[in-house]
Structures are given as structure tokens and as C-alpha cells.
Design goal:
The chain is of the alpha/beta class. The protein folds into two domains: 167 residues, Glycogen Phosphorylase B (Rossmann fold, 3-Layer(aba) Sandwich); 171 residues, Glycogen Phosphorylase B (Rossmann fold, 3-Layer(aba) Sandwich). Helices cover 42% and strands 15% of the residues. The N and C termini lie far apart (48 Å).
Length: 412
């Protein structure tokens, strides 16, 4: 049986080669059919795939919050967008913007196959790994633009995550510096780096400013870990829930959506050991706005929700250091400390194995020490430029790039 084993790395490589072979064969057959139609029609037939001006691709429904502000801005300017999603229940499919046409293009490889032969001018996506695995650059797409789906580190994508994009929309200088370092190390052409801010956080801030005041409630702690071997539940298991319950505070546990897919057994065990009660609630809301608003303090690991909570809601955090292994990520190449490691101590306190049993004191100190409010202001200046202008600046860039490409001045 061992002779049949293929390690994950080799398997991924073989799968990529297979996709490439199938793609090339499909493209050859497609071109042959076009030529045959042309000949049969006496030279009058035309390829009926029009080049779409703007396309957005979302690999998961939870990224509608990232794209919606940009879609709204583009719609107000009368710019047509085709929104392609790999989620059959994506809220984008029910959007009411007349210039935003959303369509479900299938899940997994079916979606990537369609994208690999897409005919468009500008494509915007938050999905890393373009031209690395299944998702290949289409020869009929002029420009690929990436927008991050969270504030913070741009190098915590899997290796080569952004290498083959043409442009990246950023929110801080440190992100641009890291991308330029990677380009130099890998002898890559320079991407267009544009600092626009963070559109979805702008919208979240607007919603918060317009929301009614919260009613009186007990002190509430939100536990919102990421997923994977370095995340809170993999490192501490149910112990952290046990300790939180001992504080007497109201506890909300909001696992990462991917945990219910990749760590279903672990979550089932934890939810059975610590069932919902008057003190404990498990939260799976699609929109995290209300749960973040209700919490007084957040406990997380390397999840991007830390920056949402600290910078938008202006509240302290407690973060864990699970000895995060950067070896699979772009950050490994830089051999320098992550920017996040300088930001987190300014936002709150670190939770370790040694301080776990003293968690109540850490929570109380974070909520009362004024140094963390000052720290949040400093981090916000570094990580969230052009506050309130993200969607406008994103639309400005996309339209400007489209006009340059269609005028024949630039493009690849």
C-alpha cells in the first residue's frame, strides 16, 4: 500500500499539471470550434464572448462584505460589474444594484475552470494563489487586481499568493514594503501598489456610528479564534472556555467559519462539553457586526478580526501567541519580524500558558488601562490609511485602470 502513497506536495503538483493539460486541451478544442464556425459561415461568424469591463470573483460568500462597498460605489457611477461567486448562497446573488450582475459559477474546480477562460478587462478578487494552483491567468483578462479581505499582514498568504497579480490595493506602507521585498527576492516585475484604505471597515464604522446605543448588559468577552494547528482551539482546547466561564463574565464563542469544515470533530466535541447556557453562547451569525458591538473585549489569535474589533470598535483585545509557524507563508521569505507582532502589544495583552489561569485580571487590566486606547490610535494610523475613503478610492483606481487599458496606453 505504501507504493501508492503520494505526499501532499507531490499530489498538489501533479494536480496542477493535470489541470494545465486539461485546460490546454479544452482551449485547443474551443479554438478549433471557433475556426470551424468561421469557415462554415463564410467568414461571418464572430466569437460571442464579449470582453467584460469589470469582473469581481469571490471564492466564498463571506467576502461580500469586502466587495459590497466597492460594488455600491461603482453602481452609483453607472459602471457595470459581473460578480462571479463560488457560493450558491452568496448574499451578492440577491443584491439590488442595477449595475451589478451576480452569478454563481460553481464550486471549486468548476469555478476555476470558468475563470481560466474568462474574457474581461479588469478582474478584482480577494483570492490569493492566482496562477499557482488551479486558478490560472486567462489570456483574455487584461489586468488582475487583488484586494485583501482583512487589515494587517499581507505576507500571511500561502507562498506566492500575490506574485502573479498585476496590482494590489493596500491600506498601509508596511504592506507595500513587504511586497517590494518579495518581488526583489523573486525577480518579479513590480506590481502596481495603490493605498486605498479598507472599504469594508469604512462601512462598518458608518454602521457603528448610526447604530442605537446598546442596552445595559453584563461585561461580555468574545472568543473568536482562527482555525488550524496554530489556532486557539488546537493549542488550548476547551481549557480556555473553562477559564473564561470562571471569570463570571458573559462569554460568546464565535469559531471561524472554516473550523466547521476543517475541524468539525473538534468543534462538535467542544460544543458538547460546553453547551450554550445563560452565560455562554455560540455564535455563527453571517454578519459579525452585532456580536462585535456587544462584546467589551475580544480574545483571538492571528485572525484579522482583531483589527476590526480594535480599530473600528475601539476596544481592547487579548491575543495568543501559539508559536505561529510562518514556513508555509510568504512571510517566511522575509526573515524579519511580522508587523503584526509590533501592533498587537499596543492593542492589548498577550495570553500564554503561564497566564491562562490569571485571565480575569488580564481582561480587567485591558479594559481599564489607558495605554491601550493610545496604542489603538497609533496602529490605526499605520494600518488604515484614507479612513472613510476606501470604496471611492477603489472605484477611482478600477475605472482609471480600465480607461488606460481600453485606450491602448497600457496593459499586458
Amino acid at each position: 500500500m505504501h507504493l501508492l502513497y503520494i505526499d501532499p506536495g507531490t499530489g498538489s503538483m501533479l494536480f496542477t499539471i493535470l489541470i494545465g493539460v486539461i485546460g490546454a486541451a479544452f482551449y485547443s478544442l474551443r479554438m478549433l470550434w471557433i475556426k470551424l464556425r468561421f469557415a462554415i459561415s463564410g467568414g461571418k461568424a464572430k466569437e460571442n464572448d464579449e470582453k467584460l469591463p469589470f469582473v469581481i470573483f469571490s471564492d466564498d460568500k463571506r467576502y461580500w462584505s469586502v466587495f459590497e462597498p466597492v460594488c455600491r460605489e461603482m453602481n452609483e457611477r453607472g459602471r457595470d460589474i459581473v460578480y462571479m461567486t463560488a457560493s450558491p448562497d452568496d448574499p451578492a446573488l440577491a443584491n439590488e444594484y442595477p449595475h451589478v450582475k451576480a452569478e454563481f459559477i460553481g464550486e471549486g474546480n468548476k469555478a476555476y475552470t470558468k475563470l481560466n477562460f474568462l474574457n474581461a478587462c479588469v478582474l478584482l478578487s480577494t483570492t490569493p494563489g492566482l496562477d499557482v494552483y488551479q486558478w490560472k491567468r486567462s489570456k483574455d483578462v487584461r489586468y488582475y487586481v487583488h484586494i485583501p479581505h482583512a487589515a494587517g499582514e499581507i505576507t500571511l498568504y500561502r507562498m506566492f499568493g500575490l506574485d502573479y497579480y498585476d496590482a494590489v490595493l493596500l491600506s498601509g506602507d508596511y504592506q507595500a514594503r513587504d511586497i517590494r521585498k518579495l518581488e526583489k527576492q523573486r525577480s518579479l516585475p513590480k506590481k502596481e501598489l495603490v493605498q486605498i484604505g479598507i472599504p469594508y471597515m469604512d462601512k462598518m464604522a458608518d454602521r457603528l456610528a448610526a447604530a442605537e446605543p446598546l442596552p445595559a448588559h453584563p461585561r461580555t468577552v468574545l472568543l473568536a479564534p482562527s482555525w488550524g494547528s496554530s489556532a486557539i482551539f488546537s493549542v488550548y482546547g476547551g481549557r480556555i472556555i473553562e477559564v473564561l466561564l470562571k471569570t463570571g463574565y458573559h462569554v460568546i464563542v464565535r469559531p471561524h467559519p472554516q473550523s466547521f469544515v476543517s475541524e468539525a470533530g473538534l468543534l462538535e466535541k467542544l460544543m458538547k462539553e460546553y453547551p450554550a447556557s445563560q452565560q455562554l453562547e455560540w455564535n455563527r451569525d453571517t454578519d459579525n457586526f452585532e456580536v462585535l458591538r456587544r462584546a467589551d473585549l475580544l480574545i483571538s489569535d492571528f485572525s484579522g478580526v482583531i483589527f476590526d474589533f480594535a480599530l473600528v470598535y475601539d476596544k481592547p483585545v487579548i491575543y495568543t501567541d501559539p508559536q505561529f509557524d510562518v514556513s508555509p507563508y510568504d512571510a517566511w521569505w522575509l526573515k524579519s519580524p511580522l508587523w503584526t507582532l509590533s501592533a498587537l502589544p499596543r492593542l492589548g495583552r498577550e495570553l500564554t500558558e503561564d497566564t491562562m489561569d490569571d485571565l480575569k485580571r488580564l481582561i480587567d487590566e485591558c479594559l481599564t488601562d489607558p495605554q491601550y486606547a493610545k496604542g489603538r490610535m497609533a496602529v490605526k494610523k499605520e494600518a488604515w490609511v484614507h479612513t472613510g475613503e476606501g470604496a471611492k478610492r477603489a472605484a477611482d483606481y478600477l475605472i482609471s485602470r480600465y480607461e488606460k487599458l481600453t485606450a491602448g496606453k497600457e496593459g499586458r
